[in-house]
Specification:
The protein has 249 residues and is α/β, with parallel strands linked by helices. It has helices spanning 18-28, 40-52, 74-77, 102-119, 131-138, 154-162, 180-184, 216-227, 231-246; strands at 3-8, 30-36, 56-60, 85-94, 123-128, 145-147, 166-169, 192-194. The longest helix has 18 residues, at 102-119. It binds zinc ion (ZN).
Amino acid sequence: MNFTDAHCHLTKEFYNDIGKVIEKCSSAGVTRYIVNATDYESVLEVLELAKKYESVYGAIGLHPEDVDKGFDYRVLDNAIDNKKIIAIGEIGLDYHYDNYNKEKEIEAFKKQLIFAEKYHIPVIVHSRDATQDTLDILKEYKVTGLIHSFSGSLEIAREYIKRGFLLGINGVITFKNCKIKEVYKNIPLESIVLETDSPFLTPVPYRGEKNDPSHIIDIAKFVSDLYGISLEELEKVTNANIDRVFMNK
Ligand SMILES: [Zn+2]
């Protein structure tokens, strides 16, 4: 199998030996990774990883939970011609914790959307407890990409799909009381991709362990059952979706 993990954080903050993780995941059948940065330091790391490993593609950007850290936006300019840097991410809005800085989050989000629009680079969007603002802001720009860990209603899903966005399915879909299963049944296969968000969101039955991209296979088994298609078919369509949206450089 040759599945893609469309959203993960294979950085040294979470893994001691990234080469080993990639080796393990590749032999499990996950052979392409979109590694997402969240702050300046991880941007530099993602640039290195994408250079070092053929199977690693990079998304670089400033995460909404990291807007209080310093960020030198010139690092984005410098990567415009880098063929392994295929997205601006992980960017977006997160109003989950009490101390969030809404103004600063919106400012960083818009700044990066302007950049993505200007250079026709897709974005990888994180949106938590901020659906309406995320949608309203995305409507202002001609951008497309991935709504990572999508967990909203069918109506919201359709809004994103209309704008050409893919929706990311991860381990959350395997959780027992997860209602998103019903929503996904009505979402066309051409709009979905698989992601782990490693090291977070480990799927059932491995909850409590650290996640890694090899669990794409467990998510894929669950999703292929949900859609009533074979693993091979799911592999083919999700890879084609990623190629269509992200691999145009
Ligand atoms: Zn993430």
